[in-house]
Amino acid sequence: MTTHEFFVDMTCEGCSGAVTRVLKKLDVKFDIDLPNKKVFIESDKGKDVLLETLQKTGKTVTYIGPK
């Protein structure tokens, strides 16, 4: 399984809550680093699927790379 690192423009708990809601639907392991605006996702799914899912939050999302 690969851990992917994403930058997500989150400013508050509500933002991280939105990320949590969309990722729970994918059934993946993830960790949110709100102060640094990063999301780490452990998954076999491709980065494009993960990126598209994170973009459903309406936040600016950038793929940083595998960790």
From TrEMBL:
Judging by the UniProt lineage, the source's domain of life is Eukaryota
Transmembrane region(s): none
The record's annotation in InterPro entries points to:
Copper_transport_ATOX1-like (IPR051881), HMA_dom (IPR006121), HMA_dom_sf (IPR036163)
What is any Pfam family matched here? HMA
What keywords sit in the KW lines? Chaperone, Copper, Copper transport, Ion transport, Metal-binding, Transport
User: What binding partners and quaternary form does the record give?
Assistant: Homodimer. Interacts with ATP7B. Interacts with ATP7A. Interacts (via dimer form) with SLC31A1 (via C-terminal domain); this interaction improves ATOX1 stability and controls intracellular Cu(I) levels.
Please give the name of this protein: Copper transport protein ATOX1
Query: What species does this protein belong to?
Result: Cirrhinus molitorella (mud carp)
Lineage runs: Eukaryota, Metazoa, Chordata, Craniata, Vertebrata
